Give the backbone structure.
Amino acid sequence: MTDCLFCKVADHSLASDIVYEDDQIVVFKDIYPKADVHLLMVPRQHIASLAELDSVHDGLIARMMRLLPQIARQQGLDNGFRTIINTGPGGGQEVYHFHIHLLGGGSLPGFA
Ligand code: 5GP
Ligand code: ZN
């Protein structure tokens, strides 16, 4: 999608601090980090939100899930990490390109 922020990050037309990318997935630093480590994992394919996932995405989602702990380890998060998916207006989603927040480090805020 041409007017989608995270499609632009994924195709490098919008500058971002990318920490990992492959043929299907891009991981980059959140521009307004809420913790010492705050990354966003996105599929290159435009999917608006978790609510739009379909069985055709099963392989992609499995890859994203298995990649998360690998990226966390690469970032030095040996003690654990938090993943968040905001979905829709009620879930606080601001960017409508499916993404998984990966957060960790000493400044991780409480979950309340
Ligand atoms: P959401 O609320 O949709 O789950 O989260 C969107 C996230 O994208 C927010 O944490 C916000 O800081 C981040 N964000 C918004 N615009 C940009 C941008 O242009 N570049 C990067 N790297 N992150 C962004
Ligand atoms: Zn997109």
About this structure: The domain at 5-104 is CATH 3.30.428.10 (HIT family, subunit A).
